[in-house]
Write a structure and sequence with these properties.
Radius of gyration: 20 Å
Strand content: 15-25%
Helix content: 40-55%
Strand order of the largest sheet: 3-2-1-4-5
Bound molecules: 5'-O-[(R)-(carboxyoxy)(hydroxy)phosphoryl]adenosine, zinc ion
CATH superfamily of the largest domain: ATPase, nucleotide binding domain
Shape: globular
CATH class of the largest domain: Alpha Beta
């Protein structure tokens, strides 16, 4: 029987229906335009939008999946981490549905869901955990940069994370300094296409540190000083492309180098990546090149599942239910700072 899942941890309102690993529907309503005006996500606005959108999004997800509410076997939602007021909307709605239907409720860890999202095939969207092998997983988004050792299904250990800004935040803040609209990541990706990644030399913070942590605020600061000293570059279209390519190359090199180093050290034969920044074409390309060179398998989240979505929440919830790993109380609260 199918599972209905909600994701409302940040600025995407999403509902999905999953059945036997198959994503029957995955409806995502993005609030990017609403927050763009403020240059970042405004928590109270996000919560209000989730309240407005969740019901229509859930209706669409059930309709697309051709599943009636009474056919649901369980209901799941992101329990954390994320913005408290935003998490609250999806969690409490899911618990209410589970209560009315007398079905189990599952509160899902947002990052754990990202971890397993590369195992959801794209077309058709089906999760195949039988193929899962031990891996090092890179989760890169606007809020997080994490390296995780996945030993087996539902067995994972955090290796490192960012000590300051997330990789996506670095894309967005560097882009803002260059006058690009929020979120700047996709625009930098696009402009970098016609640019020279070696035109300007930006720092690769912590690239040689033996630990698995990241730091991106220094890179953002160096872009700020560089632009202060070379303000006219912003008026030159080719210089802008070179700038985007050079900043992107610095971020990507740090992410790829540290991910591959962890994989080598832990002797895993597989690398995975997910999160909004894993849409970045240079990152996907460089990870592919590095993994091929080292004879590693690379599993990238499908482009439609990189950013936040309820499909990954539903897929993990179904596996947890099947493995009897977990059922969450209907009174359970949000866990905004839940660690992996
Ligand atoms: O996972 P996500 O949708 O939301 C969370 O932050 O949880 O990730 C959004 C982040 C933003 O920082 C955005 O600029 C970045 O992902 N992003 C990209 C690309 N697409 C999205 N960064 C670089 N290149 C891209 N193509
Ligand atoms: Zn996320």
């Amino acid at each position: 029987m199918p599972i209905l899942a909600f994701e409302t941890s940040c600025d995407e309102t999403s509902a999905a229906v999953v059945h036997h690993g198959r994503v029957l529907s995955n409806v995502v309503s993005s609030q990017i335009e609403l927050h763009a005006e403020y240059g970042g996500v405004v928590p109270e606005l996000a919560a209000r939008e989730h309240l407005r959108n969740l019901l229509p999004v859930a209706r669409s997800a059930l309709g697309e999946a051709r599943v009636a509410v009474h056919q649901l076997e369980a209901v799941a939602a992101t329990q954390g981490p994320g913005l408290p007021s935003a998490l609250m909307v999806g969690l409490k709605a899911a618990q209410a549905v589970a209560f009315v239907l007398h079905r189990p409720f599952l509160g899902i860890h947002h990052h754990a869901a990202h971890l397993y999202s590369p195992w959801i095939e794209d077309n058709p969207p089906v999760a195949d955990f039988l193929k899962l092998e031990p891996n090092v997983s890179l989760i890169v988004s606007g809020g997080h940069t994490l390296l995780v050792h996945v030993q087996a299904e539902l067995a994972h250990r955090l290796l490192g994370s960012t000590v300051d800004d997330a990789a996506g935040e670095c894309f967005d803040k560097a882009g803002k300094l260059m006058g690009l609209p929020y979120p700047a990541g996709p625009e930098i990706d696009r402009l970098a296409d016609g640019g020279n990644p070696r035109a300007f030399n930006f720092p690769r913070p912590m690239i040689d540190d033996p630990n698995d942590d990241f730091s991106f605020s220094g890179l953002k600061t160096s872009v700020r000083y560089f632009l202060r000293d070379h303000p006219t570059l912003l008026d030159d279209a080719q210089a802008m492309r070179d700038l985007c390519a050079s900043v992107q190359a610095a971020i990507v090199e740090v992410l790829v180098t540290k991910t591959l180093r962890a994989a080598r050290r832990l002797r895993v034969r597989c690398v995975t990546a997910s999160g909004g920044v894993s849409c970045n074409r240079a990152l996907r390309r460089e990870l592919a090149t590095a993994c091929e060179r080292e004879g590693l398998t690379l599993k990238l989240a499908a482009k439609t599942l990189c950013a936040d979505n309820a499909a990954m929440i539903g897929v993990l919830a179904e596996r947890k239910l099947a493995l009897r790993a977990h059922e969450t109380s209907l009174d359970a609260d949000i866990l905004p700072s839940w660690t992996l």
